[in-house]
Each structure stands twice: as structure tokens, then as C-alpha cells.
Amino acid sequence: MSEVRIRRIGATKDRLGESPVWDERRQRLIWIDALAGTIHVLSPLTGAVEQFSAPAPIGSLALRHDGGAILALRNGFAHYDFDRRLLTEGPSIGLDHPNVRLNDGKADPHGRFLAGTMHGDRAPNETPLGGLYRLDVSGALELLETDLAVSNGPCFSPDGRTFYLADSARRIIWAYDYGSDGPLANKRVFADTEAIGSGCDGATVDADGRLWSVLVRIGKIARFAPDGTIVRTIDMPVRHPTSVSFGGPDLDILYVTSISRSHALADDHPDAGGLFAVEGLGVRGLPALRFGPG
Q1: Per the residue annotation, which of 104, 201, 206, 252 is the catalytic one?
Q2: Which of 45, 105, 214, 251 satisfies CB 3.0 to 4.6 Å to 201 for a cystine?
Q3: Taking the model in full, what pTM does it have?
């Protein structure tokens, strides 16, 4: 196994870096500062980073088949055109609550966008509002799941038939059967991370079908076997990494975002809030799924 190398990329310092995605068509990485409403676009060959502004907070984004991105904002969706720097509002989830907002999201294998909510400052026995929403290219919106405290890490198996979703507050990753249409099915616990002292945050699946997830409170990245056991961990140089995405020309670089200061999580490390590249893992990722007709 080759030596793992971790390096900081550029000098960006996000309050809450999130939602990295590799654009294989244009060989660039896109990610967000969720609390600042900033979209970063990195060209690794030159090191140049271009920044775009959107309404804050941004929960997540996914690439569109026809260019640009689909965004999950506080309580609704929007389309972003990078070339024209133009934001076009989409449908709302119909829930306007000061402690509930859309959070992590991914496109699915059928060109739709899934994004879940997080419900902060809840009473101990209060059922979380919101849930997991699926946006069709037509603008139709479905509620697929409820009772999610802090939804994170949505991702799919290579064949698209298994969907993974974490509830960071409950420290559980769920797995579901996923079809081309219809509801989620056969919900089961994929992994319970309570014993290691951290919930899972952003996640991705590699070409071998193994899930990689951030252990946000203990500064690690974990690789999970198909039975949900952790088979490998990577220690990050900062306290609170947040999300991961494979990228680079060979999809063998794991890009990692991080937190400098976000509500209860803060890190005074000089590289906190930075973007990192993890190289030498010996595995490859999958091309990012896109929103819209392919």
C-alpha cells in the first residue's frame, strides 16, 4: 500500500466547508462555505479559485447535466449558472422554521436531487421537522423520509440500488433499497458510530462499493466495509473535517472540506476551514451523478 499524503489546497478558510464535487468534464472541484453562501471553484492545474455568491445558508449542491448546479438553500432549491453568475429560484419545501434548514444533498442515478434537513435547538423529546426531499427535473417535490435530526452523507452504491443516509445527531448511517421510482424501502442500520464518539458527516462511495465518511467530531475519515464495519481510518490535521469527494483526472484523490467555526464546532488550527487533498489511498471514486436528463 502506498504512503498516504495529506496536503492543504490553496488558502480558502471556510466557516463551514461542505459539499465537494468533482466536475470531470471541466476537471475542477466545486465546494461551498455553507454559512457564508460562497461557492468555490478550484482548477487544480493552475491552483486558481473562483468564488460565486449565493443566498446563505447553502446546504449542498450537485452538478447539472446541462451545466451549472442545483442548490439546496435554507428551505428550497435553486439553479445556478456559473457562466452568467445567475441564480434562478426553484420550489420550496413549504417549511419556514428558524431552526430547520436543508443540509446535505446528492443527485441520484436517475437525474433527481435528494437533500435532507437539519433541525437544531430541539427540545429533548421533540420530533424533528422536515426530512429527506427528492426534487424531480420537472420541479415536483417528494418527501421520502421524516424524523431526521441532522441528515448528512447521502450517497449511492455503484449500481444505484442502495442508498445511504446518515443522521449525525443519532450517530447512525442507514441503508435503503433504492429504485428508479417510488419510496425508499427496506430501511436498516448500516453503521452505528456511537461507540467511537462521533456521528458521520459527508460521505461518498468508491468504485469498489465501499463507503467513505467523515467522523466530524474526532478528526478522521473512515472507510466502511459492506457489513458496516470500519476497515480503515485516516487522521486529518484539523479537528472537524466535514465532507469528502473523489476527484482528479483518475478520480483517485480524496478532497476533504472542513470547519473553522460553525455553531458549537470550532477549531483554532491555522488550517481549519481549509480544503485538503488526500493522495496515495490506492482506491478510485466514481464520476459524480448529475441532476437533469442525461
Answers
A1: 201
A2: 214
A3: 0.97
